[in-house]
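Comment thread on ticket #2218

A.B. wrote:
> Attaching the input chain for the structure job we discussed in standup.
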Amino acid sequence: MSTDTPAKPKPARKRASKVKSEDTPEYTSQDHARACGDQIIARALQILDARLHEGEALTDPTAAGNYFKLRLQPNEREVFAALYLDSRHRVIAYDELFFGTVDGAEVHPREVVKAALRHNAAAVIIGHNHPSGSSEPSAADRAVTARLKQSLHLVEIRLLDHFVIGKGAPVSLASRGWV
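C.D. wrote:
> Ran it. Output below, let me know if you need it in another format.
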């Protein structure tokens, strides 16, 4: 007589079924490429931020324009930002100051001056995007540049440039003689 108890049969394994739910999004190679591109841009911004904050002088207008382009172009609404520099044109800080709609942002010179003083900046470079994709400065862009230059000058802070960011190359108002 055996004292062993009979083995219980093992339950059958359930196979994972490939059920497609309507809630599950379908990912394409374009989605993957976009996600990879977003990761590359994020890493490029980290590298650019590190380089700008390492104490190197920002003397190349192209580098400043490209920095604003990386930061501002992806926005779906207008964003107005500033780079604050010390007396040797080394970057102190970057701030996004004003947020608008698809076709404009209200810029207050008083707030730009307050931020520049808070950062103890000797100079400022400003930039904003045009969500429409056009990099061409508008009359309003030129007017706000003149107002900001005057306001910053009152507290002995220089406005070095104003970049307009669209789908093409950044446009420097200083290169056109408008700063």
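A.B. wrote:
> Thanks. Noting for the ticket: The first helix runs from residue 29 to 52.
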